[in-house]
Amino acid sequence: MNRINPKALIVGTALLLALSILAGVVLVSLQGLLMAMEGQSEEQIIQALADLAEDDAYLVWSMVLGAFVSVLGGYVAARIALAYPYFNGLAVGVLGTLVGFAFWSELPLWFNLAGIVVTPACCVLGAHLAVLRAGASPGRMG
């Protein structure tokens, strides 16, 4: 018996990736807006935005939002899958982590290593929340 529900995996991962991109766009936009409000020049803003991958505060906020998005991805996958909710949540986390490897060289090592742990763990947390919400046993929610 296959434990991964393809629809759950695709929808959960697509949600995780789409919301991760959206969160990144929002963070960068807010940073640029704040700098513009401080009266910085266009050149200063462009340079600062280019350096965000080295800004620890930005990376921490990015990790926090990424963790929240991962919880949502795992939750949705578990709700769709019904059977084996934790396994499907974990599958979304692993696939999301694999996609994250595409950006490995652009980000600091600590951020990448944290993402390897945080993403799957938060997806499993999301699956757990789905199980709790459904009031079901961990093996089957339907």
What would the keywords be for this entry?
77% helix, mainly alpha, 5 helices, 142 residues
Walk me through what this model shows.
The two termini are 17 Å apart. The model has no long low-confidence stretch (mean pLDDT 90). With 142 residues, the protein is mainly α. The chain is built from five helices and no strands. Helix 1 (6-37) runs antiparallel to helix 2 and helix 1 (6-37) packs across helix 4. The chain is elongated and about 55 Å long.
SSE inventory with pairings:
Blueprint (H helix, E strand, L loop, with lengths): L5 H32 L4 H9 L5 H26 L3 H16 L8 H26 L8
Helix pairs in contact: 1-2, 1-3, 1-4, 3-4, 3-5, 4-5
Q: What is the number of strand segments? A: 0
The H-and-E topology, N to C, reads as HHHHH
Can you summarize the main beta sheet?
A: none
Instruction: Please state the CA-atom Rg, rounded to the nearest Å.
Output: 17 Å
Low-pLDDT windows of residues: none
Strand content: under 5%
The mean pLDDT is 90
Helix content: over 70%
Given helix and strand content, the structural type is: mainly alpha
- In one word, what is the shape? elongated
Number of helices: 5
Distance between the termini: 17 Å
